[in-house]
Amino acid sequence: MEGSLFLIGGETQQKILALLLDRKDGTTVDQLVDHFGIGRTAVNQHLTALERHGYVTVGRLQKSGGRPRKVYVLTDTGVNLFPKKYSWFSALLLQTLQDELGPDRLATYMRNLGVQLAKGQRSRVDGRRAPDQVAQIVQIMNEAGFEARVIPSQGDETVPRIECKNCVYHDLARDYSEVCQFDLGFLSTLMGQDIEHQECMVRGGQACRFRFVPPQTPDPSAGKPQTSAPRRDGTKT
């Protein structure tokens, strides 16, 4: 949810939004004037402010004896100002999956889910230097509601780490630790590297911290047949 109804303008604007939520077909300025008992100028000012923030829009024009009247309706952003509760439904789904799959297969399922989601975001990350990739991943996470930041590389590290001060599904992860595998699959796929979950709030940490594990540089001599040194008589040992 991008905002909260209780943070919007003043009490009158909140009441306008609540009325529009009830009247799905929308309402006109004159109807708002009659309903709230305030002047047209005040109503227009409130609607202009709400429209500027993207909470209401003109849905259609209502024919009248004279000039057509604008009918204002809530936008999707406006609807999302009102509380929604998904946690109980998500918990029910996870419990059902755990009962049917078992913990190990549920963990694999959650990781694969993160992998699939990451594939749709890879174009925003590919082709960048590693530090820029991590910065872009943090931006993607913050767009999803995380409070994430880049932790600069230290020592001989070449890739920055990621720290999150919140978890958008903390309650679910507390009851179903397999949920954390979603993050690991998502981040690992975006970066194209293995990942280490160094600290986890569900496990008592102060934050969730992730470290990318660069691929090991292969030993050039690995896999080559070893030749023995020749003896003085020309034979090899």
What would you say this structure looks like, in words?
With 237 residues, the protein is α+β, with helices and mostly antiparallel strands. It has two domains: 5-79, Winged helix-like DNA-binding domain superfamily/Winged helix DNA-binding domain (Arc Repressor Mutant, subunit A, Orthogonal Bundle); 87-213, 2-Layer Sandwich (Muramoyl-pentapeptide Carboxypeptidase, domain 2). Helices cover 43% and strands 14% of the residues. It contains nine helices and six strands. It has helices at residues 11-22, 29-36, 40-52, 76-79, 87-101, 103-119, 130-143, 170-175, 180-191, and strands at residues 56-62, 69-74, 148-151, 161-164, 194-199, 208-213. The chain has a four-stranded antiparallel beta sheet with strand order 3-4-6-5, with helices on one face. Strands 1-2 form a two-stranded antiparallel ribbon. β1 and β2 (69-74) form a beta hairpin. The longest helix is centred in the middle third of the chain and has 17 residues, at 103-119. The radius of gyration is 28 Å and the shape is elongated. It starts with 10 loop residues before the first helix and ends in a 24-residue tail after the last strand. Residues 227-232 have low confidence and may be disordered.
- What share of the residues does DSSP label as strand, in percent? 5-15%
Output the strand order for the largest sheet: 3-4-6-5
The CATH architecture of the largest domain is: 2-Layer Sandwich
What characterizes the major β-sheet? 4 strands, antiparallel
What is the CA–CA distance across the termini? 74 Å
Count of β-strands: 6
The H/E string reads HHHEEHHHHEEHHEE
Morphology? elongated
Rg, nearest Å:
28 Å
Q: Which parts are unreliable, with pLDDT below 50 for 5 consecutive residues or more? A: 227-232
Helix content: 40-55%
- The CATH class designation of the largest domain is Alpha Beta
Mean pLDDT value: 87
